[in-house]
Amino acid sequence: MTYFVKPHRRFMLTLCILSFALLQVLGIAVVIVYSIARYILTRTEPSTTAIMLVVIGSSALAGIFLLSLLGSKRAIAFHKEDVRYALGKSKYLIVLAFLQLIISIVGIVTEKQAIISTWPIAMLQTFVLCVFVGISEEAIYRGIVLGGLLARFGKTRKGFYGALFVAALIFGVMHITPGTELTSITIAQLVLKVLQTGILGLFFSALVVKRVNFWGAAFIHFLWDFILLSSEALVQQSIEINYVSSGEDGMAVVFYYVVIIALQIPLVVSALRTFKQTATPYCGWLSDIVVLNEQGNEVVVTNPELVAACNTGEQAAQAVLARLDPAQPQPAGVARFVSSAATTPSHNGSVPTPPAGFYDLSKLEDSAPVAPTAPVTPAAPNAPAAPVSSDLPHSAASGSAIQQPDDRPPRPAGM
User: Fold this and answer.
1) Residue 412 falls within a domain, yes or no?
2) Coil, strand, or helix at residue 272?
3) Tally of domains within the chain
4) Using one digit for the tens of pLDDT, what is the confidence trace for 47-83?
5) 22 lies in which domain range?
6) I need a surface site. Which of 27, 137, 333, 379 has the fewest CB within 10 A?
7) How far apart are the C-alpha atoms of 360 and 4, rounded to whole Å?
8) pLDDT digits (tens, 9 = 90+) for 348-365
């Protein structure tokens, strides 16, 4: 039996691009509406922190909603194992963040800056803001942007790496401060900022690719931002983020970026090691594993264990496929009948030719004999699916063959 990796929806990359554009428009619209409403009600202009909380909070909710539409519940499912894995892989990054925090606190002390009396409120605002930033940026840039690129180009190694680096570049470019006066110093700062943020994006992508889930990366992203910004909450009420300086400290900012980029090189090494260990075709959170049954019909089987095995390598996939009956609903994933219109059954008994756009995993054949099953008679149009026997637990075998809920158990080790 032949397996393929296929985007969860048709025109997935186009849908992801439109979703990304919609989120940018939404952010601008929220700023305008909130500012006008605030002025009408209070006759005051909102603070920078208030605007950021409203805009980024709404972006986080909208990003999760759009990601769920693009990839179903599986794309946004939360598993604590993902957070534990991300923490284990991010120890160096967290140490690097605390090192910068210590330097900032030393600067506050040496410059004798006064601690504001409302610092607990400012710290709470910073905490909430960083939570929103971590969720929104990971849902958007890793979940939607990277997910769409991998669904379209993850068939080959070149496409896989291309998707990762393009997504990291987009993430870096989106951190450029608009309206910056362009001089040789500010241009150098902008280029270095794109590179520094792109490295972080590449590392976060490695966490997401390994776990096929963005929540672990979102948590680490939150920690990184909160540790860096917490020192500012001690001395100023409103958070102002500016990555470029055109003043006397311009060269100091350039030097800072050069040092940070050098210190982030181990993150690149870690990310590349993860990418090298990931097999292609890659089955991501916006992709499905599909089988063509004996009648030439497509059956989507999205099982966490099978996804982890396919992304690990052919041998791991064969071990899972040897004991997996893709025609049956899986207790921990999705198994649904799709269509028979896209394929034509072969008359000589061979495996049907896959439709255009499928990723060929024909080498992933069962390495152990599978118990024979009763022949399947094609059902009449609109007729309910006939019950099938299964060696799965009763709760799984008795479920609908059209759609299974995404109540996934803890993932296998290493995913």
Assistant:
1) no
2) helix
3) 1
4) 888 899 999 999 999 999 999 999 988 899 999 999 9
5) 9-177+211-240
6) 379
7) 5
8) 444 444 444 433 443 433
